[in-house]
Design goal:
By secondary structure, the protein is mainly α. It has two helices and no strands.
Amino acid sequence: MVPTNSPTPGPRSPAALANDAIRAYVAGRRSWSPAELRELDKLRAAWRQAIRDEVVTAA
């Protein structure tokens, strides 16, 4: 049986928020301009930094 009360989700981590931003940015795109690729690189860099920060905090 599936419980009827689901736990209240906590605050989203910076890495999860950065991942959401990347997913929203790439959704539905078929081609990329150089400027769009640069923006995607910035979003990826922010995500990688957020992951590194989480790993350091966890350690």
